[in-house]
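Components:
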Amino acid sequence: MVKLESILNFPLLFSSMLFILLALVLSVYKLLTRLKDASKFHRIGLLFLNLVFFLSFMGLIIQPHYNDSSNRISKLLIQDDLTVMKKLDKDEFLLVSSLSQLGQLSQQYQLKFSSQILTEPEQLQLKSPASEIELIGDGLSETQLAAFDNMRLNFVSAELKTGLISPEWLESIWLGNHFSVKATLQTSSNGIFTVELVDPIGQVVQQLSLRSNERFEMSSTPKTIGNHLYQIRIIDSKDKIVSNETIPVSVQRSTPAKLLILQSSPSFEVKQLQNWSAENGASLFVRSRISQNKFVSRSTNLELSIFESTKGTSLSSRSLSLYDLLIIDGRELLSISDGQIKTVKDAIRDGLGLLVLVDSYLVDNKNESLADLLKDFPLSPLEQQTESSIVLVKSETDLVNLSNITLPIATRPFDSTNSLPPSVIPLITDLQGRVVVASSQLTLGKLGLSIIQDTNRLVTSGRRQEFSLIWHHLIEQIGRKEQGSQLQARNPAKRFTINQLAEICINIPMKTPVKAKTEQETFRVSHSFQQADESQHVLSFERNPFLSGEFCADFWPKQSGWHQLLDNSLSQDNMIKENLWFYVHDEDGWQADNQLTTLLATKSRIKRNPSSASRKGVSLPISDWLFWSLMVISSGLIWIERKYWS
Amino acid sequence: MIDALLRQFRFRKLLQIFISSFIFALMVLSINHSLNSHFNGSLIVTLAFLLPYFVFHLRKYRSISKSNLLEHINRSYPDYEESAQLIQNSVHSQELNILARLQKQKIEDKLDHDIKSKRFSLLYPRIRWKSSFLMLVTTLLFLSYGTETISFIQVMFQNRQLAGQTETSNVSVALKEPKITSSKTLIRPALYTQLKSKETHQLNFEAEQQAKLFWTIEFSNSKLDYFYSPSGQAPQKMKRNGKHFSIEDVATQTQLYKFSYQKDTKLIDLDGIYALSVIRDRPPKIEIKEPKLNLIEFPKSSTAEFNLKVNVRDDYGISDVKILASVAKGSGEAVKFRDKVFRFTESEAKITTGDAPNSLRVSQLYQRHWRLSDLEMEPGDEVYFSIQAKDNRSPNNQIAKSSSLIIRWLDEEEVEMAAEGIRIRFVPEYFRSQRQIIIETEKLVQDRQDLSIDSFQQTSQDLGYSQSDLKRKYGQYLGDEFGEGPEEQFGLADGYHGGESMSSGEANTGVEQHHDKASTQEDEDDHQVSQQPEIDDHSHEHSLDDSPTNNNDRSGATELIQKFGHNHGTIEIAPLSKRDPKSWMKMAVNEMWQAELHLMVSEPEKALPFEYNAYNYLKLARQAERIYAKRLGFEPPPVSEDRRLSGELMAILEYDLSYVDNKDDTTDSILFEKSFHILNTFGSDSLSQLEAPQTKLFSKLSHRLVELSGERPILIKYAAIAERVALAKTTLLKNCDNCIDDLRSKLWQLLPAPISQPGRLLNPQPVRLDQEKRYLNSILNESIK
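Structure:
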């Protein structure tokens, strides 16, 4: 039903109004003609009834409003407890947050046509215009609160839900890496709760006992590639599961690195490194010095062209540009010429990683051309042979302790006597925090120094996994970065939820100069293969003018589960790799965190309550029942008059 | 006059058409809008309906002509005497005869009168106001509530359609494919087992090895020929006995089987893959109850006698038990050995009926008293006993042999031997090693859901007993509890099992690990460890007695040297670890206590951490007991960097080699990984068909799991699921709700811990590399200037 002012914009209705008016005029004319001999009272009465009928009919169509100047307060309940439906007052409305809730209400209360259930906050003003809104329950998100701009809001918050809040985890990791989940436990009681991390097949991999507001971290290493769903369960003291959240993790194989290894003599260390790298798909070129001017080299999994350009004794910038990481021991580094050192420096500047395996020779011998390169790394000899424990430093807060492993070190730890310059980043420390492997950024590339020795021992003692973890960490951190696509959800929750609008942004590497093409790129979004129809729909991404390589689009997920972003652009390069997966959560997921988000948004909005709170009257519609009643009564009386009186 | 009437008629007709078209248009629009939310679309559809409707009714409007009107008046009013058409303008008065002119005049007057008296109002096209109003109200109501009504009708219709389809498909399936309506399998174990025959109506069942199996099956369609197809063998035609079909086979190994029927010349498989699990007859287990130690020494003056008590257990029966003795006389090169065979003098049999399969039902206790003098032994001689037991398996008995007992009658001149450092590298068949206990505990934890409660508890307790035995064995070495005889006894430090693979994560039986190119792990480890003598932080004790120098040096130089030099007394010998082996072993035994406790109360998950710790401590003990002996001989001076690699190496060639590492794709881990990936992608409710390579993969998986089920019977269930997936070529299996999820879970368990890859890190902020390079170059150039 539309208002009067919009009728002119709607030709069909306008013509209907015109038709009704014409019908009225015709009726009146016929009436007067028929009753020209009747009494005045009769004619006026009948005329009145016709007028009432037509006016009420038009009233039903036009829906006139009246201005109510009293201070009306409408209450909006936002909560999961649907039993309040039974006790709602006439000025109270229930906002359902999901279709499942709506279905539940329909089943339980058969309230399909109830006017007190809202699916969007904007409907409140339509159903019960008010000058002040009272929000009761979990609060509204920022987007939803926009419906109440320039209105005064009051908020009565609900009890905090038991669950996890402020979760953090990486949704996409490489095979062999562990993923860690950090979150805070929020409960309404003070008891001890058990938090379990459950793997994709339902086995508990880690268990913690926590109290409310304790932040925790749990980690696990997925066994294979693919899209996996871990769960975090919260169990109370009565062994009842109070919350179960899904942690989606997509595990992919990383792009194998290309390694160039130069060693002053054949060693077990490089042998094991070579074996592990080659078995896992990396490409290698290993050059070993067997005499002062003689070398033997061996390449594995290397393209012939790269092999041809690398073999030989001299390093060229072209050959170095083909590799991701150069690993060299100290003695060999001392033996290469100044010209080659410069070539290596230039290559690092262009993105190559250099990892120097420090030995006693490097410590004892000084080289002018190397002094500049190694100036940030204080090397001092060890007084006696020492072993160090191993803690991988993935970030400031992400440390991986390889328990029960100790390896010999060649020199004193880097920060044992002096503090390291800020440009130097620790990559591996011991349990006491002393740095044994560090790196520094040199323009686009990185220089890393490692004083740990004999990691090959780990392989021979059966700790192959730890060996692979150490070297994977070093190659990843020091080697040349890969330019790839990354995807993220831009909303406060940083995750996608079914039936909730989110902005999806993707970073695409720009390898070639920007061509003159349209501002929009089109990418398909495909739901996971579990659906037989493999339903797909298209998203149009717009380029972010402030950040090159970033494209964003609004995304309204209609199905939960894993989704894949596929490239549908017209450009020849496939800009998105096939393994760009993301997960859409169910509406019922992360309730505590969602509640916290809405509570904070609402409280923030309350603080900003507009001073010019609208206390003037509101426009209210006249009830339809009035018009229907008048129409029925008047038509009935007209019929009676026609039947019995004419 | 007639023209005015004609206009009136036409106007009325037009009004009628207009009103009815309008209401019709509204109705169509409201219905369309309910079905389709796009207003523009609904409008177009409405116009499409409206146009022909309007055109159709417009024909009636056009048919209102003067002549038709006059004809209509003639029909409606007899008093016009069929003469109304006379007043048409086309008929001029001069052309008419007198009668016609008179009639025309009369008609004109009449017409004029009737028009004025509105007599013709009854002939006007009627506008049905009431029905129009009702239709309008109905349309408005439909606009408000039509959507829900249509949805409701649609849902009702869909439900009825689905129900009809399901019935049709059920009926059609029933007609097309025969099914097994009843089955009975008679299992007749081999005679030697002395077990009774049993019957089962399940097609997935267990049977003893070499049991005869007799299937009797009834199919829904008894007119066809049916075949029995065990996996890896040719199909066998079943014998028809009226409505029933029978076949017999012998249970030799765990396998899958299915049934098929013949249609034309083809064999079509029936839905269902079944698993036959075979309970193997295991060799007897021998446990020497007394003496508890493996080495007993009798002093010369003692009475050299002891009791030998042995418990022999078997699945079904023991046929023979012998004592093999080998007496060694003399010493050095003059030693002579004399072998004899003895029998036990007493025995006591006990038969238990374990509920779980694979339980050792038959147990016999044997004993005999020995005097060394009866063996014609003298002080200085030794005798080695071992027990050999045969079970009653027919036709080929299985033989088990126990560990050896060494009985030594000491000569008084002989020095008491220190048993420390003696290592005997053999694995008594009776004892599991710590590594084996870990492997079997991990398997038990993984198979928990697949085993019955009794079976689970029994296996856990069995592992607990093994752990207890192992703990006792190591305890003997430590001299904790089990001293026998007048002198302190020293056990043997066996339990070290050389050649074991020590990598963690290999606790999955039968899973082939990728061949380690580092080859023999322990020897290389030893070699490397031996190259680097461990230097303590001087916290360990130095015994002053070990010092080769005496304490007569008053200058204190010796003490200084001893304090700061790394002198372990014997210069050339230095222990490797900080602790002696006994401390590590004591710690290992402590952990074994805890592990045993949890295993006995059927908590293998809690026992695992203790088992791992015990294993680690045992490894450390093994390393600790090794002694590093420095090579004696010429020590060349260290080579300076200038002289290094400067020798004549004319014969050594430089070379460049290129290899391609072909990763072995046939390993179990690759097979499990690929299968898991497919199941994880498709899930259990996907209608997508598997492609040929994927189907082949599952077939291969099924074969491999059947092979592995020999060691781990529980895997046969998953082999059957894999086979079903391969045959159905989809992951949507009928009558098997959780099968795909179960298979997926088992594959996840079988996968080894992943190895990190040598990969590159993804740059979170991708940049235009060329742009950045240009920028950096410009900065550098500026700085140079």
